[in-house]
Amino acid sequence: MRYSAEHKEETRTRVIAAAGRVFRQEGYGGAGIDALTKAAGVTNGAFYGHFKSKGEAFRTAVLAGLEELRQGIAALKASEPKDWLTTFVGYYLGYKRTCDLGESCALPSLSPDVMRADDETRSAYTAELKRLIEEVAVGLPGGEISGQSQRRREDHAILLLAMLSGGVTLARAASDPALSKRIADVIAQAALTAIEPGN
Hints:
Elements: H1 5-30, H2 33-40, H3 44-50, H4 54-79, H5 84-93, H6 95-98, H7 106-115, H8 119-138, H9 147-173, H10 177-194
Helix pairs in contact: 1-2, 1-4, 1-7, 4-5, 4-7, 4-8, 5-10, 8-9, 9-10
Protein name: TetR/AcrR family transcriptional regulator
Domain HTH tetR-type: 9-69
Keywords: DNA-binding, Transcription, Transcription regulation
């Protein structure tokens, strides 16, 4: 039976989403092809019809996760141009800290496995991370965009993403809910203070 291009694309999208959830929950080493195909509701043959290897599926899931974060930030900036940053930090250190690990942000949950990945995956991740940094930087407070101020905004974007990602990692790893919340509160305050104009 031949499937339409639309059906194939829907299946690919479903496999990428399922792979993202499984890799977040189990890590690259813990996620076998059987777990990926079961989560996506496809056969091994269907999986290999879309990806040559588990490594390719991982790379695709990582890039999709970072793109989802970038698009979420862009949408938030468009809907709340003045308060997007406070809303984003609250959401990231609130819901994204406490949601199911399979639904967590790709930045803290998948980056550790990217460090151990092949050069192609690391290069693709780097390119997507640069796009994410640029997206955040464009929305940060500060004066006119000159070469120097643009670099400063990108530096602040890097600081913000690193603080949020690291904060979520520590808060998720802590078994004590009170400590987890305390970490989130400290990081939220520090992140917003660090990128205020004049800092």
